[in-house]
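$ fold --in a.seq
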Amino acid sequence: MSNLTAGATEGINLTCGMSGSHEFIFTLVPIVYGCNFVIGIVGNSMVVAVIYCYMKLKTVANVFVFNLAVSDLTFLITLPMWATFTATGYRWPFGGFLCKTSAGLATFNLYTSIFFLTALSIDRYLAIVHPVHSRRFRTVVYARITCVMIWLFAFGLSLPSALTRDVINIKDSKTTVCAILHPSAENAEMLKKLLLAISFLKSLLGFLVPFAIIITCYCLIGRTLLRAKHIQKTSHSREDEVLRMLAAAVLAFFLCWVPHQVFHFLQLLTQLNPGKHCAILEIIDTAMPFTICIAYFNSCVNPMVYGFVGRNFRKNLLRLLRCSPRGGARPHPSISSKMSALSFRASEVLNLTVKNSSTYDVK
């Protein structure tokens, strides 16, 4: 990989110029980054503090939500640098190390965030659809092992993104940018294949596969809850709150990531068909900062969807804001605990119905 970084700071000439360089981007995007930074830092810090101080890491879902919030915080600390980079007209003043680190953390957060959301979806599927059989697998120990595996796997996937980024001098505009390495004569083919692999994995493992798993889990969860609701003949119960939360989680995930993934896929197509695509690249490079803003907003939405929807989380948040002692009251169960209890009752109802039907058939 050392050959790829050789000569990274040498000046290069751009075939299409600085595409996507518009004044409104340099003004609007840094403002959005700043809002994402403030909202995300406050929201995720509250999630970490509430879970650690009051709700504890004693449930599987709490472990995943805690790690998800830490992942978002790790990424959010880089947003001021990206805001500065955009506000100064794509000029990177922070050096090569922070360029690689920030780019790597952005990709790292993409994978960790989506992997933790997927782990939460699988956990909720097991808790609601298979509450009895999944008990031995849904333990805090297994959850922590899963988190370690997610961190390591995401680090491995994001490492190439960090290594293929560096500070580059643009001769035409005399600008120093933090960008993907420009291929030279000796490493052009190798770098092209590596960049294509990174883009392909980002689309496949960073969105398509996790999204398919999440949708499948939530559809099966919804079907189970609706069946239980139909059997119990209840109109407004706890199932409705759970279904609304699951729908909000899927919708937030979809809306935040789809725009970026669409333009990322178009960018991948331009890489597969090398040549002068200046008009297409102009559209992609102009839209990409805004799709990144929307994708980064997912780090702000996560605390709202997975934390603030829960009534007990809000109670514990008020205790935190009032600086109530940890032992002052019994810790409230997380929303996932309520979901597990609910799913166990729903499963019992379904099982009893099946047994009764079988008994009648025998008679």
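$ fold --in b.seq
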Amino acid sequence: MHRTPHSSPYLRVMPVLGLMAALLLLGLTPAPRATAAPAADPVRVMPLGDSITGSPGCWRAVLWNRLVDSGHKDIDFVGTLPPQGCGQAHDGDNEGHGGELVTNVADRDLLPGRLAATRPDIVVMHFGTNDVWSNIAPDRILAAYTELVAQMRASNPDMRILVAQLIPMNPSSCAACAQRVADFNATIPGWARATGTDRSPVTVVDQWTGFSTATDTYDGVHPNASGDDKIAARWFPALAAALDAGVPQDPGDPGDPGEDPAACTARFRAVSSWQGGYQGEVTVTNTSASAISGWTATVLPADGARLTQLWNGSLTTAADGTATVRNAPWNGALAPGASATFGFVASVPATAGAPAATVTCTGKAPAG
């Protein structure tokens, strides 16, 4: 059968070979094929704790969806345990083992294997409820915390660690538990200040204030839907700030100039209060070794308070009351150790307690 020239594979290849030979004779080489830049790895977040975190721990689903809705899409919740439902799509991997005591996890060295299997960048830890129920001394629980932090840093020297002041507990079978939780929570901020480092900060997230065992749990211990919403709302600003800071770059890959985060801290104080409101103040301090060109703070007021006025910054408020405050043009640049302060007025429900707020901040390095 007669074949046309187009049906011969040799005739299809020869023009290409001839062109390449001509290019080589002229001292030219074909340009390499462009390749797409590798996608950045997602930030890996480990929810760590006991049944409040993992059985089913539906605050994780609420938190996941809120992070995604706010633009944090390149994240990966990790853990050796699978999701347990919760009625909404989310990344349900977690490390919330029902019934576990943090002291047992430390004593039996259970965490290193879990870290090796999941390689988190950030740990979100609500752990110690069973220890408090078992009347274990706060100092021993904190010693377990310290051991776990050391294991986290052995896994990842740049680990960022969010530690909760535990939600209240008031089960019918433990009359003393309510006070024990309050006593233990009071020790956590001092421990965190002593344990945190510039490279691996420890951030305390107040899950206790404004949480009611009567309305936010179904048994005096475990959160119901209302409790899940409150827990997620408290984690969100601290975790969002850690995500905004980004995963530390590999050596030789410093990232885009001017976009590297710089360390800063935020401190809240109540200036004055009255029926139905109060005046608050937040001080942002540059705790890094270099200057920053701007900062962003988040303020989550306790007990349903809402910021209604703000000065020395620009304000954006989310539906749940979380306020995002960015520096004004005149107070964003801070030398190492320098501070800037913004003030606000908040309205509060009639049932609110003393003024309180969870505050965090991130800094922006100047363009190189």
